[in-house]
């Protein structure tokens, strides 16, 4: 029995299989998911050959210290922004041995949202060392904290798969 729903496990299995076959590694930088993306990947046997490291950077200070996110970016755009997600994924990629990284930052709720940045808003970024970058701005809505987090994991894993296929 897994901690994750079967669709997430199936996607994680495909990532582990494909990354293993290609000899690639992945790193994660997570805020609102608190390590769930890395958790889904490491739920799969053999993931130690693929998962280099995961950064859980829940606070702005952690984003700055661990990933090199610029304080000015956080002040100007906020933690939940495309700019922050892009800097997070860049930091995860270049502070690891991974060829591909994924980063997420968002508002899982139930509180913390605003008119400008409502509960369920998540910015995701995936990047390869070759320079390919994908950003997605998701509006999951106020569907519940766990559901926002799981939806974010699903989207992040799909982004990793599409980046690998590119």
UniProtKB/TrEMBL annotation:
SUPFAM superfamilies: CinA-like. InterPro entries: CinA-like_C, CinA_C. Residues 11-163 form the CinA C-terminal domain. It comes from the Bacteria. Signal peptide: none annotated. NCBIfam families: PncC_domain. This is CinA family protein.
């Amino acid at each position: 029995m897994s901690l994750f729903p079967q669709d997430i496990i199936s996607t994680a299995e495909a990532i582990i299989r494909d990354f293993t076959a290609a000899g690639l590694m992945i790193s994660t930088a997570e805020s609102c998911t608190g390590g769930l993306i890395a958790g889904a990947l490491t739920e799969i046997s053999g993931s130690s050959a693929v998962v280099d490291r995961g950064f859980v950077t829940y606070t702005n200070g952690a984003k700055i210290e661990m990933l090199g996110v610029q304080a000015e970016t956080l002040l100007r755009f906020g933690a939940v922004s495309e700019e922050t997600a892009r800097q997070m994924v860049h930091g995860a990629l270049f502070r690891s041995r991974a060829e591909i990284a994924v980063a997420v930052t968002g508002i899982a709720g139930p509180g913390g949202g605003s008119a400008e940045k409502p509960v369920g808003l998540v910015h995701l970024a995936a990047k390869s060392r070759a320079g390919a970058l994908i950003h997605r701005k998701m509006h999951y809505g106020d569907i519940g904290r766990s559901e926002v987090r799981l939806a974010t994991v699903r989207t992040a894993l799909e982004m990793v798969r599409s980046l690998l296929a590119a």
